Amino acid sequence: LQLHHSGNYSCRGWLKDRAWEVSMPVTVTVHGVPPSGMSLSAQPPGGQVALGERLVLSCTVATGTGPLYFSWHQDGSGALLGTSPCLELRQVGDNDSSQYQCQVSDGDSVAESDPLNVTVLGERDPRAGADP
């Protein structure tokens, strides 16, 4: 069932005397289920990605009736990073090391995932930060 299936339903049948008869209407109300049970996954697994490589974060919702609206955020900021179930960072940089969260709304309620830590792994010059 979908939310738009709510309404009044009746049936009609052909009787032996060749007349149609219609039943009393029955009201059917389809209720939405708010989104919950959200989980995040990363590719590569564990959210550890090499500098300049591609990272894909996926948000999965265990329950919830649609339509569902997704939004991605970094470090709890209000900045919107994406609006689909997957967030793709094509070439990660140093400032992409952070916590990422997905929010899902059904238009009435909002659910938020636990944060996922992303670590960008890059080669460091062993002399960086050393005293001359």
Automatic annotation (TrEMBL):
Polar residues compositional bias, start-end: 97-106
Biased composition regions of type Basic and acidic residues, renumbered to the chain: 122-132
Superkingdom: Eukaryota
InterPro entries to which the protein is assigned, alphabetical: Ig-like_dom, Ig-like_dom_sf, Ig-like_fold, Ig_sub
Domain Ig-like: start-end pairs: 35-119
Region Disordered: start-end pairs: 97-132
Name of protein: FCRL2 protein
